[in-house]
Amino acid sequence: MANGAKGVNRRSGEPSDESPDESPDESPEMPESPGTAGGVEPAAPVESAGYAPAPGLAAGLEADRALLGRTSTAERVADILRDRIAEGFFPPGTRLSEDSVGGALGVSRNTLREAFRLLTHERLLVHELNRGVFVRVVTVDDLNDIYRVRRLVECAAVRGLGEPPYEVRAVEAAVLAGERAARDRAWQDLSTANIRFHQAIVSLAGSPRADELMRAVLAELRLVFHVMADPRRFHAPYLVRNRQILEVLQGGDAVEAERLLASYLDDSQGQLADAYGRKMSRR
Description:
About 60% of the residues lie in helices and about 5% in strands. With about 280 residues, the chain is mainly alpha-helical. A hairpin with a 3-residue loop joins β4 and β5. The strands form two sheets. A three-stranded antiparallel β-sheet has the order 3-5-4. α4 packs across α6 (about 185-205), α6 (about 185-205) packs parallel to α8 (about 230-250) and α8 packs antiparallel against α9 (about 255-280). The chain is built from nine helices and five strands.
């Protein structure tokens, strides 16, 4: 090891200011290998390249092993609750009881609290001191910001499609689900199908990060849908527009599809903002 390089404390696994020569436990310095420049060893050895982990590192990771199960379970619980919020199962202002939700899902209190924390970070839940956790009630400013993000992501997904033909089976499935829900007069299902339509639009970009972003944004949007006194009157006209966008995409015209989508989002935002503003003024 080159002069001036720091050693590693074997008991803690932390870097030490001692030089290797001052530590009686260190092995003799190895000769410089042909692959090292100036005798300096790689700063971050990679085990797959034949280097051993730093002393204490494995023990530290073993201590973290217990966190993996709890964290992954908490993320799965958060996924379930996020989907339920997006489906309208938990309206805004609903208190989520730790005992009820945790008992229904069969998870520990700590796991559930971690899931609540994740969804609070996503602005879907809010924790009120001495009262508990509630599904968040969004504001008009929130609504406007949600649509700002939707334009940035959804329109860009369509704009970047490239040359046709486009893989729109998921978009078509959402359109068909919405039309079926309308025939069955299942208005909550119609709302859910509309959410799925926009998720499918974003999925055309082939970006897992964009998909993840839109799942949270559209779940938050569902909190706004509850202000519409008549969901049928709000959602049904957009079924026609969903199918129109689908057919334009099937025809390979991404430019026209983006234009239709931008107009769609403008109209939707206007309707919701008007309804939301009236409801908030009555409070």
